[in-house]
């Protein structure tokens, strides 16, 4: 789906949170792992997390690496997770960070958006190859009514090694941001910008007043709600904030056995929602 | 494997060619597709291509996108292809161009190199996230005796949009090249530099005299043997040149039915080998 469905779901749930579904085996409560193969355990936990939070959140974001690492059974669990999240009315952002030459980018776009795909609404892409690597995704997004988030300023500690390099008076990430403005001509290319770099987040919002922002780095990585608020547009919208471990590992916080994971995840989602909304409201006032 | 096995196989076969295994369904001769499901057809063609060329080439490079686009059956074919190529004594470069934050990069590295993986010797990675996104692959490469090629100057038409941006007197790709020199401290990080940009290829070799170069862009994309020769080190080595369509689609060149694909692929491999070796020899003289 284009971003309009995402915006609508954020409004309806009054929550700009996307739950990152990155279920390493050690994040899954023992009573769910027990007696199940890896793929089955991953899917069962995801299904239970979606059941626990679907009325509170607009979206989920599975990170492909955590499924690929378990081989074909992991990928089967990813496929089932995407289909289940869609059936629960959620927007699905598939975090794959792909980027390749034209013919290959077309193949990836078909893999994630095509009629045989599991039906994710949106993928993340890497801009290092330039337009050739991104436009096939945009084209496929138009064909199948989907969308794309391009990496601009990532949340990790070393993101500045390339992204902050000075390119004649502006950092590389700003040059990439300007490219994404072109890629967004039909409203299907948002950006990824981390909550861990708040000054850059604010600067990027000034440059791209109407782009959708996917903001990782809240919570476990150190980003705060007031940082995230800087990513919002003038009306406090067009932003979706990811938390993975903060939500799906909430049951692990105090050494419990995980039987209450659904309640713990709900509580963490509600706390995050209220934290974000309060900071966004403060910024607007 | 580290690059020593690759170097040894190149010497032994007297051939710096890697056969790109990017088997779109339409590249597969009708008599092999007939009566087979997609995954089975992909693997059967790859197996036949490997049988046809294994005595002539040191390595194969499956491009993950062309398997991912066919879903789980495609990924199963990829897994079987990697295992078959290894059993045929070939070095396997898995072209995935991944790059992500630390914990995620670790998951990918485990997916491709870990004990449950199909056993590729090497993967390609994207440097946009900086060291955090690459070092987990290097670390895993050390653990499992593998190697990594980082994208520096890609072969596609728009590669300059980011990679050629002037960063205080040198292009971005040169800054990335200097980072790869650090990542290569244990001899496990080569670079990707396209044959379609020969001046940059020569400049990169001067900067990185002892790095291994993976060179795409020969043949269908327009790169010539004399361009590729610029990537060689002083002794004419440390370079592996990819061709995909030029080899695996050789049977399609004159409208034949593909029953002679094995002979056509062998002939194309031999022609490419001789073309490359002659240009490399000319450069050395």
Please give a structural write-up:
The structure is a homodimer of 285-residue chains. The first copy, chain A, is an alpha/beta fold and 285 residues long. The first copy, chain A, has one domain: Aldolase class I (TIM Barrel, Alpha-Beta Barrel). In chain A, 48% of the residues lie in helices and 14% in strands. Chain A has helices spanning 3-13, 30-33, 38-53, 65-68, 71-87, 102-113, 131-144, 160-163, 172-183, 198-207, 225-229, 245-248, 261-284, and strands spanning 17-21, 59-62, 91-98, 122-125, 147-153, 189-193, 213-215, 239-243. In chain A, α10 links the parallel β6 (189-193) and β7. The longest helix of chain A is centred in the last third of the chain and has 24 residues, at 261-284. The interface between A and B is large, with 56 and 56 residues.
Task: Give the SSE map.
The structure is a homodimer of 285-residue chains.
Chain A: H1 3-13, E1 17-21, H2 30-33, H3 38-53, E2 59-62, H4 65-68, H5 71-87, E3 91-98, H6 102-113, E4 122-125, H7 131-144, E5 147-153, H8 160-163, H9 172-183, E6 189-193, H10 198-207, E7 213-215, H11 225-229, E8 239-243, H12 245-248, H13 261-284
The residue-averaged pLDDT of chain A reads: 96
In CATH terms, what is the fold-level topology of chain A? TIM Barrel
CATH class of chain A: Alpha Beta
Of all chain pairs, the largest interface belongs to: A-B, 56 and 56 residues
Instruction: Report the uncertain regions of chain A.
Output: none
How many domains of chain A? The number is 1
User: CATH superfamily of chain A, called what?
Assistant: Aldolase class I
Give the proportion of residues in helices of chain A.
Answer: 40-55%
Question: Count the strands of chain A?
Answer: 8
Taking Cα atoms only, what radius of gyration of chain A do you get, to the nearest Å?
18 Å
Q: Supply the helix-strand structural class of chain A.
A: alpha/beta
Biggest sheet of chain A, in brief? 8 strands, parallel, barrel
User: Between the first and last Cα atoms of chain A, what is the distance in angstroms?
Assistant: 32 Å
């Amino acid at each position: 789906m284009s971003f309009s469905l995402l915006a609508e779901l954020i409004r309806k749930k009054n929550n700009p949170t996307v739950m990152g579904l990155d279920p390493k085996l050690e994040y899954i409560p023992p009573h769910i792992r027990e007696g199940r193969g890896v793929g089955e355990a991953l899917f069962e936990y995801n299904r239970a997390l979606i059941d626990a939070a679907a009325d509170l959140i607009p979206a989920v974001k599975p990170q492909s690496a955590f499924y690929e690492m378990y081989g074909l059974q992991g990928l089967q669990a990813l496929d089932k997770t995407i289909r289940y999240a869609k059936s629960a009315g959620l927007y699905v952002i598939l975090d794959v960070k792909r980027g390749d030459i034209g013919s290959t980018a077309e193949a990836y776009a078909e893999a994630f958006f095509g009629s045989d795909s599991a039906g994710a609404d949106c993928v993340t892409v890497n801009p290092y190859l330039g337009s050739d690597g991104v436009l096939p995704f945009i084209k496929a997004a138009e064909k199948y009514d989907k969308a794309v988030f391009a990496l601009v300023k990532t949340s990790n500690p070393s993101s500045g090694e390339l992204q902050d390099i000075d390119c004649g008076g502006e950092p590389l990430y700003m040059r990439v941001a300007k490219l994404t403005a072109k890629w967004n001509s039909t409203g299907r290319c948002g950006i990824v910008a981390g909550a861990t770099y708040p000054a850059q987040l604010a600067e990027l919002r000034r440059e791209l007043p109407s782009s959708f922002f996917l903001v990782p780095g809240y919570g476990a990585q150190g980003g705060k709600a007031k940082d995230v608020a800087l990513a919002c547009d003038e009306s406090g919208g067009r932003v979706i904030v990811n938390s993975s471990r903060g939500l799906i590992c909430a049951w692990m916080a105090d050494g419990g056995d995980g039987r209450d994971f659904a309640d713990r995840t709900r509580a963490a989602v509600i706390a995050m929602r209220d934290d974000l909304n309060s900071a966004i409201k403060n910024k607007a006032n």
